[in-house]
Model the fold of this input.
Amino acid sequence: MKPVLVIGSSNTDMVITVGDLPRSGETVLGNEFKIFAGGKGANQAVAARRAGADVHMIAAVGNDDFGKKAVTALIEEGIDVGNVQTVDAVASGVAMIFVSDAGENCIGVAPGANSKLSADMLRHNEAEFASAGVVLVQLETPMETIVAAAALAAAHDVKFILNPAPAAEIPEKVYAGLFCITPNQSEAELLTGVTVVDKASASQAAHLLLQRGINNVVITMGSQGALLCNADGDFFEEAGTVAVVDTTGAGDTFNGFFAAMVASGKSLQDALAIAVSAASQSVQVAGAIPSIPYLNAGELP
Done:
């Protein structure tokens, strides 16, 4: 199996649990405070690795304790970090996360060194694209870097999966020939103008995205499941009912598992089913990386 190449952010997550999420201008007393390795790129890299993939990562961290600990955590997961760049005079990325008793969250991110992950860094590591089976990218790094990643993946005929999170407008040239895009409901609404609340509205949004030249669209819908749309039709995978502890990182778990299954040669429907199961498992545990299950450890059916 060829590697999954993850290009994206590496952050340190600082998590405070609270009874209810604070409203604008409100101060709430929290319960526990914990620090985890995180960032959408790192989370998805760990998820793909725990799903059994050989994972390589291209990222940028600061020359500080947070950055050093983040890289060490990736190494301990068995992820190839040979192309994770250390950037001087810039702090590593951090995220402040509030998690309510209901498992909902709100997140603020200071990108730090993630904003220094440049298109030139990718071009200097073009050999990684040539050897990859899947390239997985999110939007916590500069848009010009995402555009360059799409071009390099296309040049080497590698499947490119774009998780458009956090929600942002995407240049039209990224869509053409894109193997798969994986927005959640709010991201799909931003990209298409369609309010996604059920399977019918998700299908409407997905087909608008297909018209832009994308080969496959997956819209993740939280507790409902996920919808896959392509030229063969619509395929919906329902999520089982679980006790939700913390939804942080559930989308990253989905994307990492989905990319790993695609790289392994699974059909898209099988990849969808396994990724939904993994995401459902993850929301039952606190923290992003601590909640990511292992495919072969009896944690997934």
Remarks:
- The first strand starts at residue 4 and ends at 7.
- The mean pLDDT is 94.
- The CA atoms of residues 98 and 106 lie 5 Å apart.
- The chain has one domain: 4-9+38-92+115-291.
